[in-house]
Amino acid sequence: MVKIGNIELPEFPLLLAPMEDVSDPPFRRLCKAHGADLMFSEFISSEGLIRDAIKSRQKLDIFDYERPVGIQIFGGDEEAMAMSAKIVEAVNPDLIDINFGCPVKKVVCKGAGAAVLKDIDLMVRLTKAVIDSTNLPVTVKTRLGWDENSINIDEVAERLQDIGVKALSIHGRTRAQLYKGEADWSHIARVKNNPRITMPIFGNGDIDSPEKALEYKNKYGVDGIMIGRAAIGYPWIFNEIKHFLKTGEKLPLPTMQDRIEAARNHLTWAMDWKGDKLGIVETRRHYTNYFKGIANFKEYRQRLVTTDGKEELYKVFDEISDVYSDYEFA
Ligand SMILES: Cc1cc2nc3c(=O)[nH]c(=O)nc-3n(C[C@H](O)[C@H](O)[C@H](O)COP(=O)(O)O)c2cc1C
């Protein structure tokens, strides 16, 4: 069993990565239904939370059926981080995660996200500010370092653990790499094998199949795996990996009916959460992923992303179901 504070997770848990514009409640509900053991919100700006920005507020929505669930915040100012931790605590997540890994310019320019990797003292102060203002377990997600000449994840891990961080998720890339090249898990393994480190270490980066999950589990010895992009439009990845780790056998691929059901549920749950109009518009970006690689699907994809009415959309799903009832996935 893996423990984060008092949260008990199964042996070798599979985590859904925080992903902006993706890891919202309807998507998380699908991932939970398909085996995710711990999930995170999209990252939320600490300054946005304090300003009471609507976009930041909405990202705080969590539901009991998705527990354990963490809310992720980012920022470069100690006071703002402490205040936002209090706001987050009020919605009662199971933990607060801090993002020190986001590479995008608009975040880094403000001295937040991966920028904090350039100043470990600041990272420690920001993290301590959060820990001191909440009773919830605090975890961190970060990268290996700013660039290949400044990989500092070993020191980061020790110093964060020393001030009370309860788990660390490491994306095996530097900020400079963005999403290019391959994630290098050897650095993650070194942190995990450091005898000083007792908090759980979760590996992240490029896991996209049961085989790779097994290979990386054995090779790098991490406490669990965090999965991001491979779950987009494919929440089945979690149970596929679990089944393979347990039995050495692959589950059958999700059928067309499974994919239609997932996309339909995604739409329904998005409408339940945000109302019909917004739910319909916000689910559009996901359809391509659920129906990836299907021959001659263009017409249906087009209709899914242009139909405005809920009943009409459900009819499009029914039609897809009829037309593709025998479709075989390779
Ligand atoms: C669309 C998208 C949005 C992301 N947003 C966040 C975020 O809000 N917070 C965060 O810590 N990482 C974010 N990430 C990084 C992922 O959590 C993860 O570290 C990265 O995608 C590598 O894992 P993967 O190879 O399994 O996708 C995002 C990644 C993507 C693709």
TrEMBL record:
<dbReference type="GO" id="GO:0017150">
    <property type="term" value="F:tRNA dihydrouridine synthase activity"/>
</dbReference>
<keyword id="KW-0560">Oxidoreductase</keyword>
<feature type="binding site">
    <location>
        <position position="72"/>
    </location>
    <ligand>
        <name>FMN</name>
    </ligand>
</feature>
<keyword id="KW-0547">Nucleotide-binding</keyword>
<keyword id="KW-0819">tRNA processing</keyword>
<dbReference type="InterPro" id="IPR004652">
    <property type="entry name" value="DusB-like"/>
</dbReference>
<feature type="active site" description="Proton donor">
    <location>
        <position position="102"/>
    </location>
</feature>
<dbReference type="InterPro" id="IPR035587">
    <property type="entry name" value="DUS-like_FMN-bd"/>
</dbReference>
<dbReference type="InterPro" id="IPR024036">
    <property type="entry name" value="tRNA-dHydroUridine_Synthase_C"/>
</dbReference>
<dbReference type="Pfam" id="PF01207">
    <property type="entry name" value="Dus"/>
</dbReference>
<keyword id="KW-0694">RNA-binding</keyword>
<keyword id="KW-0285">Flavoprotein</keyword>
<feature type="binding site">
    <location>
        <position position="141"/>
    </location>
    <ligand>
        <name>FMN</name>
    </ligand>
</feature>
<feature type="domain" description="DUS-like FMN-binding">
    <location>
        <begin position="15"/>
        <end position="313"/>
    </location>
</feature>
<protein>
    <recommendedName>
        <fullName>tRNA-dihydrouridine synthase</fullName>
        <ecNumber>1.3.1.-</ecNumber>
    </recommendedName>
</protein>
<dbReference type="InterPro" id="IPR013785">
    <property type="entry name" value="Aldolase_TIM"/>
</dbReference>
<comment type="similarity">
    <text>Belongs to the dus family.</text>
</comment>
<dbReference type="InterPro" id="IPR001269">
    <property type="entry name" value="DUS_fam"/>
</dbReference>
<feature type="binding site">
    <location>
        <begin position="228"/>
        <end position="229"/>
    </location>
    <ligand>
        <name>FMN</name>
    </ligand>
</feature>
<keyword id="KW-0820">tRNA-binding</keyword>
<keyword id="KW-0521">NADP</keyword>
<dbReference type="GO" id="GO:0000049">
    <property type="term" value="F:tRNA binding"/>
</dbReference>
<dbReference type="InterPro" id="IPR018517">
    <property type="entry name" value="tRNA_hU_synthase_CS"/>
</dbReference>
<keyword id="KW-0288">FMN</keyword>
<dbReference type="GO" id="GO:0050660">
    <property type="term" value="F:flavin adenine dinucleotide binding"/>
</dbReference>
<feature type="binding site">
    <location>
        <position position="171"/>
    </location>
    <ligand>
        <name>FMN</name>
    </ligand>
</feature>
<comment type="function">
    <text>Catalyzes the synthesis of 5,6-dihydrouridine (D), a modified base found in the D-loop of most tRNAs, via the reduction of the C5-C6 double bond in target uridines.</text>
</comment>
